[in-house]
Amino acid sequence: MMRLLVLSAPSGAGKTTIARQLIQRHPSWRFSVSATTRQQRPGEVDGSDYFFLEREEFQQRIANGDLIEWEEIFGNLYGTLRSHIARQLQESEGDSRMIFDVDVKGALSIRAAFPNESLLVFIAPPSLEELERRLRNRQTESPEVQQTRINRARMEMAMQGEFDAVVVNDVVERAVQQIEALLQ
């Protein structure tokens, strides 16, 4: 059984929204919490949304081999703690799954570490124009950061062929149902 559901998408494509919907619908599923050096946003909870680490601690964990994957994105480090995945897999029961919300390179690293247990799904926006609109409407970043995210989205979109499936997020409910169908 594919116990690791890895969702990846450009910023603003809706992967976090989809992941939250899946967890709401499947209470036994767990969300993999990534570690990051970025600043905590209002409403985010350490250990629930992210493990917020100082850059020095993150770099020490890299040196110790504690991360399955990590990436520097927009000046911040993001990664997946090996201990967190191992603990979640050990505690999982029945049809329990672990959902990852990671960048495209991170998704490929998770597959490399857990090739028989992972399903990689690329969440695509309906169009690049729609993605730009979503990013601008979030109003959480400067126009310069938004443009950087849009430029990175082009690179990420080019990598969608590396994934097991591509789901277009034009309607969240439909995208969630398509992902559920992949897991049948």
Give keywords.
five-stranded parallel sheet, four-stranded mixed sheet, alpha/beta, globular, about 180 residues, Rossmann fold
Structure description:
The chain is an alpha/beta fold and 184 residues long. It has one domain (4-182): P-loop containing nucleotide triphosphate hydrolases (Rossmann fold), CATH 3.40.50. The chain is 42% helix and 23% strand. The chain has helices at residues 15-25, 55-63, 82-91, 104-113, 128-138, 143-158, 172-182, and strands at 4-8, 30-31, 34-36, 50-52, 67-73, 76-81, 98-102, 118-124, 165-168. The strands form two sheets. A five-stranded parallel β-sheet has the order 2-7-1-8-9, with helices on both faces. It has a four-stranded mixed β-sheet with strand order 4-3-6-5, with helices on both faces. A hairpin with a 2-residue loop joins strand 5 (67-73) and strand 6. Helix 5 (128-138) packs antiparallel against helix 6 (143-158). The protein starts with a strand and ends with a helix. The model has no long low-confidence stretch (mean pLDDT 89).
Task: Write a short abstract of this structure.
The chain is an alpha/beta fold. The protein has seven helices and nine strands; from the N terminus they run βαβββαββαβαβααβα.
Chain oligomer state = single chain
Radius of gyration: 16 Å
CATH architecture: 3-Layer(aba) Sandwich
Please write the CATH class name.
Alpha Beta
Approximate strand percentage: 15-25%
**By CATH's scheme, which homologous superfamily applies?**
P-loop containing nucleotide triphosphate hydrolases
Question: SSE order in H/E notation?
Answer: EHEEEHEEHEHEHHEH
Measured distance between first and last alpha carbons? 10 Å
Q: Average the pLDDT over all residues and give the rounded result.
A: 89
> What's the number of structural domains?
1
What is the count of DSSP helices, taking H or I runs of 4+ residues?
7
